[in-house]
Design brief:
6 strands, 0% helix, elongated, three-stranded antiparallel sheet
Length: 101
């Protein structure tokens, strides 16, 4: 429950595929309302190699999730992974973003 805003739900997910590099998106929904537009808060910028996870397959999603703001309770914090170039090599990293209702 978010103070002054009624019941809200936040959703975050990873995405990747043909034409999309590994990234994360989120939405917020108010009770009786509709889902807000998709917010891409961690857009990928490069093709993650299959061996990036060290197991021979490109694995992601271990570090994704969301939670209400523990102080003000008016925002939601989302965490997701993205593929980005770091020191000339495509690697994954975690990005955190605040979403306001």
């Amino acid at each position: 429950m978010l103070a002054g805003a009624g019941l809200q739900v936040g959703s975050t997910w990873q995405f990747s595929g043909s034409g999309f590099f590994l990234g994360a998106e989120a939405r917020i929904k108010n009770t009786g309302g509709s889902w807000t537009g998709v917010s891409t808060y961690a857009g990928g910028t490069c093709a993650l190699p299959e061996s990036a996870a060290g197991s021979g397959s490109a694995r992601s999603g271990d570090y994704a999730g969301g939670h209400t703001d523990p102080v003000g309770l008016l925002s939601m914090w989302q965490a997701g992974e993205q593929a980005v170039t770091i020191s000339g090599t495509c690697q994954w990293r975690v990005r955190v973003a605040r979403l306001d209702p």
